Amino acid sequence: MLFILSLSLANTRGTQTVQLAWDTSQNSAVAGYVLYYGTACRVYSNRIDLGTNTAATVPGLQEGQTYYFAVTAYNSAGVESTFSSEAAYITPGLLNMVGRGNSNSVSMEFPVACGHWYEVQASVDLKTWTTIGQTTTAVSNVWTQFSDPQASQFSKRFYRLVLH
Fold first, then answer.
1. What is the pTM (predicted TM-score) of this model?
2. How far is it between the farthest Cα atoms of the chain?
3. Residue 98, CA atoms < 13 Å, CB-side half-sphere
4. What is the DSSP string of 82-150?
5. Per-residue buried b or exposed e for 40-66, using 16+ beta carbons within 10 Å of the residue's own CB
6. Residue 64 CA, distance from chain mean position
7. What value does the mean pLDDT take over residues 33-44?
8. Of 99, 102, 9, which Cα lies nearest the Cα of 59?
9. Strand 55-62 vs strand 118-123: parallel, antiparallel, or unpaired?
10. What is the mean pLDDT of residues 86-102?
């Protein structure tokens, strides 16, 4: 089975949604699919019986957390196949401050979502924001790093990410 992940941001801060899809099994005995997911590789704490659907939306994912997904197919007797290949997904929306680098710069890291790009913005008063950098459009769901080499010029500086 082929897994496809698609990002869908929820309006609730701190939780997000991911959309998953996979190819239909060519086995005529398949009566439905079960989606498994959890926060550890091959350890699934959640199970969703999807019937004959080959797509699912999973809500309530926490920013910065890595989730692992796999699917099984089952027959009319409810006997499940082995797990599909596992798909990992890092939920975007979290900005981790890593600390000051060697040149008094501030370093940060954040997960990015495929097909999106991000602006890193800075402010000294939380009212006026200036874009100090941006990423290219992400081609994979990974953590990326950014450094602010001008951080030492300010007594205080706040940061935020803008998703595009």
1. 0.73
2. 68
3. 15
4. -----EEEEPP---EEEEE-TTS-EEEEEE--TT--EEEEEESSSSS-EEEEEPPPPSS--EEEEEETT
5. eeeebeeeeeeeeeeebebeebebbeb
6. 7
7. 95
8. 9
9. unpaired
10. 79
